[in-house]
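Notes from the 1:1 (GR / supervisor)

We went over the backlog. Supervisor wanted to see one worked example end to end before approving the batch request, so GR pasted a single chain during the call. The sequence is below; no edits were made to it. Supervisor asked that the structure be written out right there so they could see what the output format looks like.
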Amino acid sequence: MIQPLAVGVLVSGNGSNLQAIIDRIEAGSLPAKIACVISNKADAFGLERARKHGVPAIHIDHRTHGGRESYDAALVETLRAHGVQLVVLAGFMRIVTPVLLDAFPNAVMNIHPALLPAFPGLHAQAQALRYGVKFSGCTVHFVDEGTDTGPIIIQAAVPVMDDDDEASLSARIQGEEHRAYPEAIRFFAEGRLRIEGRKVSILPPGA
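Structure output shown during the call:
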């Protein structure tokens, strides 16, 4: 019997994408288990979501470490202690360093609320509205040392309405995030992602 993929989720806030992943796992449509949820903020609601589902919920305060590398070393130690195979950033509001990336090569994912490479960084929805685009969306990508620059796995587009504000556009995008992120994790769990430079190919089942 194939063992489910052990996923470690890093959160800083509400954790709605974490909940979407949990829901897919519990529905039996995602061959994974969440080995641990870690947050840099003790009051992150994502930790409470983890506790409600019997998932180890761990607070590692970034303020108690001497820098980003030291903090990421603590993350790596905890993730490895829980047998994590894939690290998933779900609203984790910290830039990760090569300490984490080298520990989990091609096994750190992030989701961004825009169609990358457009509108990287913070407040992507507001950026899109200011620019006047007709479509926005979300991007699941592997993480590299840049800001939202890693190889793209999945993208989903949504229309931008004339009367949209940041909240309404964010809500529409989030609906696609909750579909796309578990799907990307499923492809990883099934061994169906092949990375060649910047290109990520999704292989057919059983390939």
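Supervisor's comment: The chain has a mean pLDDT of 97.
Batch request approved.
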